[in-house]
Structure formats: C-alpha cells, structure tokens
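Run log // design_07
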C-alpha cells in the first residue's frame, strides 16, 4: 500500500516537473518572439506603441501647458489611452509619431497684451513688462490721455502684430492742453506760467450776482483760508478751503467731467465739471482724481482728494464757479456769508 503511494507521488512529481519545464520553454520562446509594450489609443483608434508611457505623457502635458513663447496653453479635447500588450519584436515604438498626432488635433491659444485708449485696443505687445513700460512712460511725460490708457491681457488662436514700446508711446502721447484763460465779470483774465492772473479792478460781487438755475453743494467742509477777490499776490479767482491731504472732494452739482488731470498753470491736478448752460465748477490742487473726461457724475459724488499739487502753500481745494468762461464769486452761490 505504502509502496503504491510512493510510486504515485513520484509519477505526479515527474508530470509536474515536465509541465513546468514545458511552460518555461514556451515562455522563453514567446518572449523571444514578443515583448511587453503599451498600445496607444486616440479617439478610439490605435495610433502606435510606446515602451515608456510616463515619458510620452509628460511630453504631452508640457505641450498642453505651453512652451512660454507667448503660448498660454493648448486645448486638446481627447488625451491618449494606454493598454499593456505583447508585440512582435520586429515592430518598434513610435513615440514621435504619436506626439505629432496629438499635436495635430490640438488648438493653440496665445497670450499677449493690448494697450487700450478709452477701452479701445490700439497696439499689442508680447509681455506685461512691455505694456507697463508704455503706461509708465506716458505718465512720466504727463500725457493728457493717461487716465484713458489701460492694459488688457488677451488670448487668441493667432498672434497680432507687435509694436515697439517707443512706437506705441509716440502714437498714444497727447500733449497736455494749455490752461484756459478765464475772465472775471466783464473783464478778461490772462494766466501766466507762474499762475498770477491779471485783472481789471472790476470785481464780481453779490450786487451783480448772475443766476445759474442750479443749487451747489459744498465740495468739502472746512475753513476758508482765502476768498475770491484781490490779495497781495494778485486777483484770486475762487475759494481756498483747507482740509487734510486725502480728504474726499465731492461734486458741487451733477454734470459731465470736462477735464481731469494735470495743469502746468499752477492748478496742479484738477477737475472741471460742466453743469450745462455754460456753468462750470473747478476743483484744483488735488492729490488724485477718481473720474475721467466725459464721465457723468452726480451731485455729492466723490471726484478727487485734497492735495498740495501746483502752486500752493498748504493742503486745500481751490474751488471756482464759472459762467461762460468767466469766474464768479463762489460765495454768491455756496459757503454764503453776510456781506456788508
């Protein structure tokens, strides 16, 4: 009995050994003829084979993310799928062909920057640094349209023609206008570069007040440090109301911003608002303005901040009321006081 069992065990071991040997032989033959590899499928079709799917996919990812030469990204709707398989050794991997096939179905989006004026695209540059240099130079040159100049990041499937920063600045620069001459009552005021207007001895007083048909609100609450009329330095065409630097200045009445920017006449940074029918108000020596020419503003809207720009010895707003270009005494309409 035991002898039969031993014989059967030996026979089984021989069979198992033969099976293992046969399997190894077949495996070696199979591996000699075939090799493990990844098949690459795109849009449901096999487009090739790769031995290193990680390397191929990394190249595709880098391509999609852009190469830095104004390429923002590449839109690829379908990415490759990888499946392990066995391929006859006579066939080779074709990573480059697969990569080219992926590129052919991609849509490239470029990134660039538009220089705008009044929200209209005027010129294009490749980098933000170039766009910033244009606006900085226009600010340095005090271009009259600097408040309308902007930078917009753009994306597109094609690149526009780029201009040099020098060419763009030359095309966009607008020379600041000369200050407007203003008159007082029936006389004409002529401004010099030192902001010392000359007037005749006729002064606009409450006795010849001209009706303007609108109610003015105070642009700021503060101390009047200089009134309308003659003073040692000449004729003063408005009111000076003192407040700390940065105090908000409000529109005395609703209207359209006629000018907002720098003046070389002594006003410094200033704003003019037209209220219709030839009526204007002016706010000078500002630190900064929050409106631009052509903008509609409402009564009480913040338009600027008190500063010390132009010819001034302390922080204040110089406030004028004009009718048909002639300066009027603001205290005929606002900051009123009893005059004997």
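design_07 sequence
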């Amino acid at each position: 009995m035991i002898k039969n069992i031993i014989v059967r065990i030996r026979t089984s071991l021989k069979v198992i050994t033969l099976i293992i040997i046969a399997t190894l032989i077949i495996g070696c033959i199979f591996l000699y003829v075939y090799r493990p590899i990844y098949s690459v499928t795109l849009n449901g079709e096999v487009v090739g084979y790769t031995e290193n799917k990680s390397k191929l996919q990394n190249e595709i990812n880098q391509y999609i993310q852009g190469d830095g030469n104004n390429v923002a990204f590449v839109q690829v709707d379908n990415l490759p799928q990888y499946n392990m398989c066995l391929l006859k050794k006579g066939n080779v991997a074709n990573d480059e062909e697969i990569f080219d096939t992926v590129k052919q179905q991609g849509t490239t989006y470029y990134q660039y920057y538009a220089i705008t004026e009044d929200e209209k695209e005027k010129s294009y540059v490749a980098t933000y640094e170039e766009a910033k240099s244009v606006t900085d130079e226009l600010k340095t040159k005090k271009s009259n349209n600097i408040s309308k100049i902007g930078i917009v990041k753009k994306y597109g499937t094609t690149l526009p023609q780029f201009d040099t920063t020098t060419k763009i600045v030359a095309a966009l620069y607008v020379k600041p206008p000369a200050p407007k001459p203003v008159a007082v009552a029936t006389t004409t005021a002529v401004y010099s570069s030192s902001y010392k207007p000359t007037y005749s001895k006729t002064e606009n007083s409450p006795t010849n007040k001209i009706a303007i048909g609108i109610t003015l609100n105070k642009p700021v609450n503060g101390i009047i440090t200089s009134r309308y009329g003659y003073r040692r330095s000449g004729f003063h065409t408005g009111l000076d109301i003192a407040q700390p630097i940065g105090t908000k200045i409000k529109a005395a009445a609703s209207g359209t911003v006629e000018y907002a920017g720098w003046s070389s006449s002594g006003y410094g940074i200033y704003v003019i608002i037209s209220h219709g029918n030839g009526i204007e108000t002016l706010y000078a020596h500002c630190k900064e303005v929050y409106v631009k020419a052509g903008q509609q503003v409402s009564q009480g809207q913040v338009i600027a901040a008190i500063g010390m720009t132009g010819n001034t010895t302390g922080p204040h707003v110089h406030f004028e009321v004009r009718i048909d270009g002639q300066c009027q005494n603001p205290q005929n309409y606002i900051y009123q006081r009893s005059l004997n």
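The first strand starts at residue 34 and ends at 42.
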